Amino acid sequence: MKQLNCLFAALAALAVLACNKIENPSTPSGDCGCGNKVEVSTDSFEASLEPESRTTLSGLKVLWAAGDAISVNGKKYLTESEGETASFTPESEAAEPAEGTPLFKAFYPASVGINGALPERITHVPETLKANPMYACSNDNNLSFKNLCGLFHIVVKGTSKLWHITVSDAEKYLSGSFDLVEDGCGYKAVINETAPSKSVRLDCDKIQLSEEGLDFYIPIPVGVYSSLSITFRDNNTGLCTKTISEPLTINRSTIYKMEFTPVFVPEGAVPGFFTVNKDGKQVRFARANLQFRACTATPGDLTHLNKDDGQSPGEWSFAENAWERIGADNTKLAESYTGLIDLFGFATSGYAKAGINAYQPWATSTTKTDYNCASSINSSKSDWGIFNAISNAGNIANKWHTLSLNNWKYLLDTRTTTSGMRYAKGSVNEINGIAIFSDGYVHPTSVPTISKFNTADADYTGFSFSAAQWAEVQAAGATFLPITGRRKADGNTYESSTQGYYWTGSANGKDAATSMQFSGTKIDFSTTGTPCNGYAVRLVWED
Question: 31 by DSSP, 3-state: which?
Answer without folding.
Answer: helix
